[in-house]
Amino acid sequence: MQMWIKGGRVLDPGVMDARADILVEDGRIAEIVPAQSSTTKELSADAEIIDATDLLVVPGLVDMHVHLRQPGQEYKETIETGTRAAAAGGFTAVCCMPNTSPVNDSASVTSYIIEEAKRCNSARVYPVAAISMGLFGQQLAEYGELKEAGAVAVSDDGKPVPEAQLMRRALEYARGVGIRVISHCEEMSLAGGSMNEGPMSTRLGLAGIPNAAESVMVMRDIALSQLTGTPVHIAHVSARQSVEAIRAAKAAGIAVTAETAPHYFTLTDEAVNDYDTHAKMNPPLRSESDRSAVIQALADGTIDAVATDHAPHGTLEKQLEFDLAANGIIGLETSLGLSLRLVDKGYLSLEKLIAAMSKSPARIIGKPCGLARGLLADITVIDLSARYTYHAAEGFSKSRNTPFDGRQLKGRAVYTIVGGRVVYNYV
Fold first, then answer.
1. pLDDT value for 37
2. pLDDT at residue 251 in the model
3. Residue 222's pLDDT is what?
């Protein structure tokens, strides 16, 4: 099978930014030539031609933090609906967190997820397995078996690892196996509220969660990374103090990486006004100072990746009193449009954003990503000028829990190509 992607602006961060044509053969990139040049290979009569004139062609986007809910909570999301939403958002691969039912703490669950993703035949799925059995924070899972089954990382996401000694052992075990540890940083003794601690929580009469609930644990895990000599990845960074700790750790040569999510650089806790449970998440939306710090951290490389923390919930979990409602929002189909606002506003370059949404997360989980001869043809084609209104009810996710319903966005994926096959085509 052949595919000829013609006339696009090909942007491979750190490698090239030029008008070029890409030839794909048998699922891999066979050739990249200047636009309007002739390929050295003969095109078959049934080659698929994609006209990318006025479009941006980039390495397939990678979301290293999603919740697909399967097995066990299929009424919220399934691997099929989640990967379809991912493809519609331009993502060729997603990493799914282990807080399923049963928890992904065994090779059998990891294998099930991979096989189900193959059956769905849409975006790739890379399972993230549990740090501890059952996410209970008491006994380490078998990382060797999990990696052999296909897990790309371990995390107790949704819960922190409360005991520093267990986290130390997790890092040591992970180093020996060669698997990345992703830390959900939350000091539970400080995290008893339901939104950010500040003037808005006081006005609404809701118990607040201080920045320190996140940053104290970030500092702990940076110290443990230094102690063990093992890389650690900090999930969903939201607080200014966390950013400062990560920046200092990187300057000191400590092997820490980090991600944030579009809602943390788009919204503040003002979005909770009127007790909107679609703006309830963990960590919570923070202050304008925190939002600005997160944007600056993306611009200077302190934060490596943009991830959605896509967390689908049913209406029963969200149509409750604010303090009882579930945390989390969906984000796969809004991530690109929201993130491109940072480029439009001049906060960071297009190249840096694309790197944060593709090559950087792929590097962290140890997967190849890029536009080069011989690589898998995982490619996203983007219309930067497309303006549209996002309607959650028209999306591919089973759930509708988002504060961005009705939001005007600019920039969307028009082709999502996985292994040389179009899995999403916006018409």
1. 82
2. 98
3. 98
Residue closest to 99 by CA, chosen among 332, 371, 282 = 282
What pLDDT was estimated at residue 45? 87
The segments of the chain whose pLDDT lies below 50 read none
Domain's final residue, options 316, 337, 365:
365
353 and 401 together in one domain:
no
Under 8 Å between Cβ of 143 and 173? yes
**Residues 83 and 11 reside in one and the same domain:** no
Structural contact between residues 222 and 209, judged by C-beta atoms closer than 8 angstroms = no
**Domain of residue 417, CATH code:** 2.30.40.10
Asked whether residue 85 is domain-assigned, the answer is: yes
8-state DSSP, 344: H
Please tell me whether residues 348 and 253 are part of one structural domain.
Answer: yes
**What is the SS3 assignment for 415?**
strand
Nearest C-alpha neighbor of 420 from the set 124, 95, 9: 124
Token pair recorded at residue 73? 């909570």
Both 230 and 323 in a single domain?
yes
Based on the structure, what is the number of domains in the chain?
2
Residue with tokens 């078998």: 142
Indicate the SS3 state at residue 371.
coil
> How does DSSP assign 199-223, residue by residue?
HHHHHHT--EE-THHHHHHHHHHHH
User: Which domain covers residue 29, as residue numbers?
Assistant: 2-57+375-425
pLDDT at position 44: 87
Examine the domain organization and report whether 155 and 295 are in the same domain.
yes
CATH number for the domain harbouring residue 138? 3.20.20.140
N-terminal to C-terminal alpha carbon distance within the chain: 23
> What confidence tens digit (pLDDT) does each residue in 327-338 have?
999 999 999 999
Classify residue 370: in a domain, yes or no. no
Among candidates 61, 70, 64, which has minimal Cα distance to 397?
70
**pLDDT for the residue numbered 427:** 74
CB of 300 within 8 A of CB of 343? no
Catalytic residues: 309
Residues 29 and 71 in one domain: no
| pLDDT on residue 259 | 98
What tokens does 67 get?
């919740």
Residue 367 tokens read as 């997967």
Amino acid at 269: D
From CA 91, how far away is CA 417, in angstroms rounded?
A: 9
